[in-house]
Specification:
By secondary structure, the chain is an alpha+beta fold. It has helices spanning about 10-25, 45-50, 120-140, 175-185, 190-195, 225-230, and strands at about 1-5, 30-35, 55, 65-70, 75-80, 90-95, 100-110, 145-150, 190, 220-225, 230-235, 255. The protein has one domain: Endonuclease/exonuclease/phosphatase (Deoxyribonuclease I, Chain A). It is globular. It binds one DNA strand through α1.
Length: about 260
DNA sequence: ATGGTGGGGATCCCA
């Protein structure tokens, strides 16, 4: 089962590029971030035509996540638990059944800039809620994939120019520590498990020729529970999509599981 | 130190 994550930066602007990538990469399941669309305005037809079931947790203008899945989506849950009144649409999960059942979670972690400030406080609080949800998922002892835009650069080797990110919410020590706290619960960073070393990026800013100069960062991650990590066959970043027509500023990342 | 680009929706916010 091929499970992917893709921050598309606006579903309306990215419909053609997303469909082209779906046709080429043929993932079984995709978690999407930054759809920037309300549920009712989400254009499900092009994906249903391609055989995907669609579950949306949308928000007008900002944020918004969704799951596309060829297997039926079971037990869909929307919103990250732990804060009543948080109306930002950043979390969706569902069970997909292939050879094995996999709990698939799609997340769009807050950017957090400028730091310090209320947006950074929100980021760290959201990561604490994520850690609690992740621990609860681990207790189920089933294959779990938490994929998405984590907006955290884990290590200096995950940025082409780490010094430029020194003061940024994506790379501050507290952000990296909060991500490590989740990993240390027992999750596997799938890309790292398969590819050591520098040069694996998922995001290149639209500005200042970042793609042309390969000035990227690795902030989109696929975290696997031990039961999912046991099934891991491959993890790759489809960086060529960043060179396409009207691209997102993120590239898709995907795992192949023996499931 | 600054400005560089893009999406969405409204004359500015977010990344």
């Amino acid at each position: 089962m091929k499970i992917a994550s893709f921050n598309i930066n606006g579903i309306k602007a990215r419909e053609a590029a997303l469909c082209d990538w779906l046709d080429a990469a043929a993932p079984d399941v995709v978690v999407l971030q930054e759809i920037k669309s309300a549920d009712a305005a989400f254009p499900a037809e092009p994906f249903e035509t391609r055989g995907y079931n669609v579950a949306v947790h949308g928000q007008k203008g900002f944020n918004g996540v969704a799951i596309l899945s060829k297997p039926p989506l079971e037990d869909v849950a929307r919103g990250l638990p732990g804060a009543d009144g948080d109306d930002q649409a950043r979390w969706i999960e569902a069970t997909v059944v292939g050879a094995r059942a996999v709990r698939v979670c799609g997340l769009y972690l807050p950017n957090g800039n400028p730091a310090p400030g209320p947006k950074y406080d929100y980021k760290l609080a959201w990561m604490d809620r994520l850690r609690r949800r992740a621990a609860a998922l681990l207790a189920g002892e089933e294959p779990v994939v938490m994929g998405g835009d984590y907006n955290v650069i884990p290590q200096p080797e995950d940025a082409a120019s780490p010094q430029k990110w020194r003061e940024d919410a994506l790379f501050l020590p507290e952000s990296r520590a909060a991500l490590r706290r989740i990993l240390h619960l027992g999750f596997t960073d799938a890309l790292r498990a398969r590819h050591a070393g520098a040069g694996h990026y998922t995001f290149w800013d639209y500005q200042a020729g970042a793609w042309r100069r390969n000035d990227g960062i690795r902030i989109d991650h696929m975290l696997l529970s031990p039961q999912a990590a046991d099934l891991l066959e491959d993890c790759r970043i489809d960086s060529e999509t960043r060179a396409g027509e009207k691209p997102s500023d993120h590239a898709p990342i995907h795992v192949t599981l023996d499931a």
